[in-house]
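Here comes an entry:

___
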Amino acid sequence: MPPSNQTRVLLLNAMEKREKTLFRLEQGFELQFRLGPTLQGKHVTVYTNYPASGELFYRRKFRALSWHNPTGREDDSDKYCKLDLQISGSYQYYFSHENEKSGGGYIVVDPILRVGADNQVLHLDCVTLQTFLAKCLGPFEEWEDRLKVAKESGYNMIHFTPLQKLGLSRSCYSLADQLEVNPDFSSPNKKCTWSNIGNLVEKMKNEWNMLCITDVVYNHTAANSEWIRVHPECGYNLVNSPHLKPAWILDRALWHLSCSVAEGKYRDKGLPPSIENDHHLNCIRKIIWEDIYPKIKLWEFFQVDVNKAVQQFKTLLTQGNRKTKSDPNQHLQIIQDPEYKRLGCTVDMNIALATFIPHSNGPAAIEECCNWFQKKIEELNAEQFQQTAYHQEQAVTCLLETVVYERLADHGPKQGSVSRKYPLVTRYFTYPFKEMTLEEEELLMHQPDKACHFLAHNGWVMGDDPLRNFAEPGSNVYLRRELICWGDSVKLRYGNKPEDCPYLWAHMKKYTEITAKYFHGVRLDNCHSTPLHVAEYMLDTARKLRADLYVVAELFTGSEELDNIFVTRLGLSSLIREAMSAYNSHEEGRLVYRFGGEPVGSFVQPRLRPLMPAIAHALFMDVTHDNECPIQHRSEYDALPSSMIVSMACCATGSTKGYDELVPHQISVVSEERFYAKWNPAATPSTPGEVNFQTGIIAGRLAMNRLHQELGAKGFIQVFVDQVDEDIVAVTRHCPNTHQSVVAVSRTAFRDPKTSSYSKEVPQMCIPGKIEEVVLEARTIERNVSPYKKDEHFINGLPNYTVEIREHIQIQESKIIKQAGTAIKGPNEFVQEIEFENLTPGSVIIFRVSLDPKAQEAVGVLRNHLIQFSPHFKSGSLPDDRSAPILKNLFSSIASKLTLADLNQVLYRCDAEEQEDGGGCYNIPNWSPLKYAGLQGLMSVMADIRPKNDLGHPFCGNLRSGDWMIDYVSDRLISRAGACAEVGKWLKAMFVYLKQIPRYLIPCYFDAILVGAYTTLLDLAWSQMSSFVQNGSTFVKHLSLGSVQMCGIGKYPSLPNLSPALHDVPYRMNEITKEKEQCCVSLAAGLPHFSSGIFRCWGRDTFIALRGLMLITGRYLEARNIILAFASTMRHGLIPNLLGQGTHARFNCRDAVWWWLQCIQDYCKIVPNGTDILKCPVSRMYPTDDSPAQPAGTLDQPLYEVIQEAMQQHMQGIEFRERNAGPQLDRNMRDEGFNVTVGVDHETGFVFGGNRFNCGTWMDKMGESDRARNKGIPATPRDGSAVEIVGLCKSTIRWLLELSKKKVFPYQGVNIKRHGKKETITYDEWNRKIQGHFEKLFFVSENPADANEKHPNLVHKRGIYKDSYGASSPWCDYQLRPNFTIAMVVAPEIFSPEKAWKALEIAEEKLLGPLGMKTLDPDDMVYCGVYDNALDSDHYNVAKGFNYHQGPEWLWPIGYFLRAKLYFSRLIGPEMYAKTVVLIKNVLSRHYVHLERSSWKGLPELTNENGQYCPFSCESQAWSIAVILEVLYDL
């Protein structure tokens, strides 16, 4: 059995119909169905007809699969249901959402074939099949001697054409009785039975290691089958298919014409019995149009009897019948007579009466009306006449084409004179009565007891839709003579289900059961014309008797999609493909590449991977039994090389009996009656009826078949096809475990070497590696024996050609090779240069090649060290006795010393971060630099290349060309010292071996080493995080890596120093000053733009992201240090916007301090004993607002005092001018913008501040365009009281109030001076003020007369919350933006649930995008959803990216929107909560898809409208990742 730990994942997406997609799986595989982004969060049920364990398969019986969610409920990224595949066949699945079918498809599970008494597995790719025409095997007692030829030739499967009793035509496929053995196989004294045949098949399996398959023919039966006479309902006759009557009349007329021509009656019209030229063809056309068509009047079958219809109409009118039209679009049209009588069609009299209305009841009016009606009927009849004429034109054309092929064409059968045996055209219907005149015959058509015996023959229709049955009503194939007809077979009529034709279904079921009982497989004859539902039913029957049935078919649909419908519905194991379809050797080589195998040097694929669409498994034949002989088309010399090329294909292969013996003509399935030759080792080339290894190419075939089976069994699954020159094809099969190769060089002979010139100069060939032996060299040669003469009794081939063959020789013994030299292509790459001297057309030579011994050893050792990551590498591994000491330890133990900060260095760091350290990301020439210097940079590229095996990618090219990338990976880490350097040293030691293997293998092993290391490092990262991450879903885990990505330590510290009195602060030795320095982790705002230098750390970004990236992931100590570092820089009661290490800080934002306070609150709640942070010492850099920066330790204060100072300063009022104000600080800001004011409104408790020339919140775009005149003007000043700041302030006050009640925070309120007096405002009082005023002043009431509304004229959306209150431009207050959702999350108590829900619904409808939230209502007149920071124009609203926050969809607000929905839906009720969870999972699935596909492995800062990519956005933004993690945490 295949390894059971292979898992394939099929992603389901809404409305995805996969019926035309082929998914192939092996027994023992696990198939997982997972929800794609369109279905995540929804209640989806997957149904399948794959039977539950211990149950039988019934195609119509479906069962629901149960879902597994290994990590719980927060999202659906890991949710799956599964099938353990143990039974071969075709299975259907579909899935429904809310009881509505939403998509589906099929899976095909391959059979496992077994041979020998010990039942060893015969892999499908090892099959070597030979077709025998059963009737040529002779009496049954002689079969063994004839079949032995196949055994001795090395075949392991025989395909017999049907073994049943044949019809009169003696065609192998026209069966007289499907249940009876062909009596030809019996001898006078011994009757041949099915059990005799079954015993032989069993003997061949056990003793000869050969399997047997045979055809099943479901489409037709022989015209002389006894049972069809008794059960004519099983065919298409004139009773059950009256639509065929016109075609039958035409068919009889043509038969009578044919008889007259044969009798010479048309000589006077220029048409003799012998048809020889175009003039005769034109005479046929003329006679049919002038004599036949006018006589049989086919149009009458489709017309109305005018007089009869007018009379009926007149009667109805006279009786006063009047109708009105119920449907004005109803027009009078002909209703076809179901019995197809002449002039039997009718019209709907109700429509007639409603269409032709007399203007009075007088006789004249009625007469006039009848005339109009008659005119209309005549018009309709004329249309039918015209339509019939089209059919007749096509019928003549098709008839003449057939005559040309059968009698005139060079490639046709040249049938000679017209006679009763060879009529003008094949009859389309059976006629089992004595002949009469055409007029008398027509009378039989209406007598059911006679008409039921006029049965339609089968055949095929060029270019027809294979899914349509051409004999059913609606098809005119028989009338238009488009059928290429088999006059010996009757087409069978099954109907839609067994009840439609019980005898036929029962008869064919018995036939199928006999076949499945005695044979290992079936070939579905004429598969593309077999009704699918019939073939499904029969194959289900067969598989009940033989589970691992091998099913093959040949399809002629001309389309892979249509082929797939047959393959998937029927569970076809292999599709027959033919090398004869190749027009030259290049095409033949392409077919080898197309039908199997992966490229040489392919990547090792993970055991759990997506289920990819496949192409049907091929049974690649050099020639099939119903096609012309290659010797006629090519030459005798081509048999050997072409079969060699086919034999090297990584799929099943096959041939037809007669090919190996060089039979120079097609062995006809109809007319051949001679027997095959028997095996006799002692026979001479001219002995009649006997063959051996001297015959044809049999000796070569044995060697090729043996090799084909060995390559399949030993895992030579990689294929390379090289077109050496126009005739020479070299096919390499490579084993990815042992790295052995077999190279077959074939010189084809599509043109006869005797009559065509072939180049004497054969190109030199370079074969990489060391040639161990010549497996086979063989040449087609002529020998001197009497020439070919067709034997009368036995099928014989050309005796004067054979193969000269030598096996398993050393290269110097070869007669085909002139010399072989060794060249060194590069370090560790040996190439053998082969010069040929006797590679004549019709020759083949096969080399067995292994790697150079040193390279072979290096690969073995590498594989040995890779076993720690996957058992896949066990095969082909070698022990390593001389390995570097570091390799004696497992990688996981070396990596275990890395901290999360170290992992930032090993896995990530973008170019800007690396440049700060004097390095940079690796740049791939002719492509692009990697996104990260760490392993993720490489893994992102390889994740795209690996599944597609895109070895032509510049990344792989760079690896093959030199060691630069390999050295970069290890040396970069070694230069870092510490634990990172140890990882670098381990990689370097592994790369020593990597560099010793051939360059074409380097991408594959480089990938294997890095995949092993990378997955180990990810597991290590998660093991150092919180239990929420460790037990979380794949989505949670991958998001949590954002914490590793964003949090790092650069060469220069980004944070100011913490108090020396603080414990657990990390230190390192400064390389330059050699002094100890603090090295705290800092959090980058976004990659790549905000990752290094002064632009890395932002107060607002840090504290919006801190909860998600550091607290939820369990990085408490690092979070504490960041909180305290920012605390040390407080000035004017504010936290810096841009940190600049504190010494270059800008205090120009009003919200950062409130985000900082929110984070301290979150820290206290999430971290065990979190409130201890309040007592931690903070070293004040600015002890007073105006003091210069002080070193750490100058003045320490507990954190709670710093918090109190912030609250106090706000209530007192903050007013200052930024230091260093002017263009040197901000080249775009106007002078007034440098003035910072913040305060608290004493009536409402709302924090307010800012002016119209600065922007103190996150929407901080400052105009930059002189052209558009927006320079120095903020796009979104949001002065007054911004809604999220009011919410954050409320949250902080509520929290401080709680702490002071618990005596954890020593202050009950703030003391300020007002009007010269000291005043105390308690936190309780401040809290109540905000609570009492918020909704009153922020909610835009549904009531237009609401007294609280200051500016009712500015309202343009009701039921929302304002974005601010008291802005200098009052209309800005009323803009719909997503900021109110932030207040909902941090201070839900200030919202009433019903109003909050209404506002959230409006936000969802207007602002929710695929990944982010629109930053402005699209109905707003300044909305513009596309951000382009580089575009300068005259357009005020967009120039130089002025619309940064006026429409583009930012990701981080979506986190707050979803969390707010989640919170308030719980309050609304369980039903709304369930719906909200579905919405959230569905929205998050899009983030999951983006995260998986992103080469940055992050979520962007923003997108343009409707989720479109924005090139100016950060590719990975800290707060975007953080908020999504927070949503999952809340779930």
The CA atoms of residues 917 and 1051 lie 6 Å apart. The chain has a mean pLDDT of 94. The chain has 39 helices and 57 strands. The longest strand covers residues 770-782.
